[in-house]
Amino acid sequence: MPRQSRHARDVAVVAFAQSDHLRRSDELSEVEMVMPVLHQVLAATGLKTGEIGFTCSGSSDYLAGRAFSFTMTLDGVGAWPPISESHVEMDGAWALYEAWVKIQTGEADTALVYAYGKSSPGSVRDVLTRQLDPYYLAPLWPDSVALAALQARALIDAGETDEPALAAIGARSRAAAAGNPHAQLRGAVPQGGYQVAPLRTGDCPPIGDGAAAVILAAGDTARRLCERPAWITGIDHRIEAHGLGLRDLTDSPSTRTAAEHAGLFDAPVDTAELHAPFSSQEVVLRKALGLGEDVTVNPSGGALAANPVMAAGLIRIGEAAARIQRRESDRAVAHATSGPCLQQNLVAVLEGDRA
Amino acid sequence: MTAASPPEVLRAPLVVEFPFTRSLGPVQSAFLTGLREGVVLGVRTSAGQVMVPPVEYDPATAEELRELVEVAPTGTVTTWAWNGEPRPQQPLATPFAWALVRLDGADTALLHALDAPGPEAVRTGMRVRVRWAAERTGAITDIACFEPEQEAEEGERQGGAVPHDGVFDEPVTGIVAEARLDYTYSPGRAQTAYINALSERRTVGERCPSCHKVYVPPRGACPTCGVATTDRVEVGPAGTVTTFCIVNIKAKNLDIEVPYVYAHIALDGAGLALHGRIGGIPYDQVRMGLRVEPVWTDGGRYPDHYRPTGEPDADYDAYKELI
After folding, report:
1. Whole-angstrom Cα distance, residue B259 to residue B250?
2. A196 to B83: CB separation less than 8 angstroms, yes or no
């Protein structure tokens, strides 16, 4: 069955690797954490650094408190002779978007995308308050769990979920992660007490360190490098108004708009990898993306099983692509988010060639 | 040369503080000055919606917004979350609710803390009022928090937004956004070994297994080859000045007389130069190729400076690749 393409060039994910996600990794510098996943995707494709057309990474210095840490992790790429390289202070899914655009322009045929987050040196709940509006929000230090809890309460008040349903999302995610050797939390974990009510420990993501890498390739190059490339048939990202009080926290119109532009609603999907660090956010995303019960959601365990900040969104794209490469999926949607209460959202639709 | 074994990794507290000074536009200036004066201002869109806290541009149309209105210090909770364990820099030290509050006269909600005895005392739709901070400076923290309001009769609610010129004496035109983040810094395996060796007055680098270059200080990876550096190599102690500059400006809090020389020094056996100060020789006699050695001071954790060894200068060809 021919694939419909809406873009100048066909671009696919041809390789994906991720680290084991751990609560702490003191013995590893960031570059030491990143290097193995870079080597894995290069080995999977047989490409050498010098053959990669474009390299792009996603990370945030605030997590580990290390200035310009992305220039240090670039040591793991092998940047000699000089390479074409860029960085986003965002989840690596946005680095992948930049790389995809670069390939669309024809300036590159292949791209290496990587992302990492080392949350263990600091307090990630406090660190993430620094991405908020500095005039009205950041001086109050509302942490990431508190903001997610406001959203959860809004959903419960609207009758869209309740605490047992949220607990079931966490339990389902960690049960699925039992088959994911990289996940930080696998199998049954206690739901625990309230972190910020109505969210309990089990509704919140683990805090940890981890990294991921993806290789993108265009057209025949992708076919040469991968037996069944995961074609990105659509990708788009959108943002909400920044004031939390301006938004309907029970909905995610930016996700829906991104999905429309990515062509999600043109045909059914069998798999969804959703970047929902909090159980309540899966409720919002399922609604925005119109996912029915027949869609397998987060078979990897999702961000509730491993949430390396800045890499967890890229991992959703990688997991969806890997499932297509393994012929466990024909058409999948991957979602990545950044910022409080699903502030920014990226949606990618991936498809494998049909026999 | 020894194979690198993982030592106990070093750790130290690291504090990052940043007091950003931010200027305010006309809308944010009026809002924050209003808070100082005990007045809550919003902004009206062309569609008639009143936004509190006010924004400068309509999020739906991107139209510039300047029509200020005053709203009531009372309002209704639109959603909330119970914060049983407040974090250090949050508005209240005792357990409280985070709440989005739609003030009377506003169409959008403001995030702040709500002081309540427990979660059973909070519900969506409850009536609350502003508790003002005792000392106000023109910041969002001039609202100390919200507190529950006695249930008002429908008719008693302070209704709509009234026009306000936004003019105050001595308006606030900027804020200082203070922040402090606490970390436990760990330099990782490679730099731990480097720092531990320095405490024994030795300098160790790591060799790239591919290009054989020795990196000092080691960072754990060869930036040229993109592979882990694994073999630990002791270098120096002597080295060669590959290039230098003469510093003529005295740095604040630095007890070194100017002029002095700051140099790139390729320690013997190292594949790239590190930098250090040159002493024990007049500044105008330092030259490329000068052979130097480290000078340690009592209790010093790294060489205080480098001084001439008295050896003949190195040939240019011996260090030209390291400049």
Report:
1. 8
2. yes
CA distances (Å), B149 to each of A22, A334, B140, in order?
A: 46, 45, 21
pLDDT at B189 over 90: no
User: Is A305:A174 a contact under the CB 8 Å cutoff?
Assistant: yes
| Residues within 8 A of B (CB atoms), A 51-70 only | 62, 64-65
Model confidence at A146: pLDDT above 50: yes
Amino acid making up residue B18: F
Predicted complex ipTM: 0.94
Phi, psi angles (nearest 5°) of residue B279 = -130, 180
pLDDT tens for B96-120 read: 999 999 999 999 999 999 999 999 9
Query: Phi and psi (nearest 5°) for B211?
Result: -100, -5
Among the residues of A131-176, which ranges form H helices?
144-157, 163-176
pLDDT at A2: 40
A265 min Cα distance to partner chain B (Å): 25
Query: Which of A72, A139, A198 faces B140 most closely, judged by CB atoms?
Result: A139
Burial class (CB in 10 A: 0-12, 13-18, 19+), B319: buried
- Which residues share a beta bridge with A196? A199
Instruction: Look at residue A134 in the predicted model and tell me its pLDDT.
Output: 94
| Per-residue pLDDT at B155 | 47
Question: Across the interface, which of A27, A77, A154 has its CB nearest the CB of B9?
Answer: A27
| Structure confidence by residue, pLDDT tens digits, A46-103 | 999 999 999 999 999 999 998 888 988 999 999 889 999 999 999 999 999 999 999 9
The CB density around residue B2, as the number of other CB atoms within 10 Å, is 9
pLDDT at A44 over 60: yes
Strand duo B2-3 + A344-351: pairing: unpaired
Task: Specify the residue for token string 């490098």.
Answer: A225
Instruction: Give the bridge partners for B222, in sequence order.
Output: B227
The full DSSP string for A221-281 is HHHHH-SS-EEEEEEEEEE--S-GGGS-TT--HHHHHHHHHTTGGGS--SEEE---SSHHH
| Side chain identity at residue A324, one-letter code | I
DSSP line for B153-201: PGGGS----EE-----SS---EEEE--EEEEEE--HHHHHHHHHHHTTT
**CB contact (8 A) between residue A80 and residue B224:** yes
Distance of CA B196 to the CA centre of its chain: 28
- Which DSSP state fits A19? P
**3-state SS string over A197-234?**
ECEEHHHCCCCCEEEEEEEEEEHHHHHHHCCCCEEEEE
> Do residues A208 and A124 make contact, with C-beta atoms less than 8 angstroms apart?
no
Q: How far apart are CA A283 and CA A199, in angstroms?
A: 14
Distance CA A214, CA A7 (A): 20
Instruction: State the first-to-last Cα distance of chain B, in angstroms, to the nearest integer.
Output: 25
- Asked if B109's CB is within 8 angstroms of A153's CB, the reply is no
The burial of A25, by beta-carbon neighbours within 10 Å (0-12 exposed, 13-18 middle, 19 or more buried), is given as buried
Query: What is the pairing mode between strands A296-297 and A110-118?
Result: unpaired
Q: What's the pTM value of the predicted model, to 2 decimals? A: 0.94
CA separation for the pair B99, B123 (Å, rounded): 10
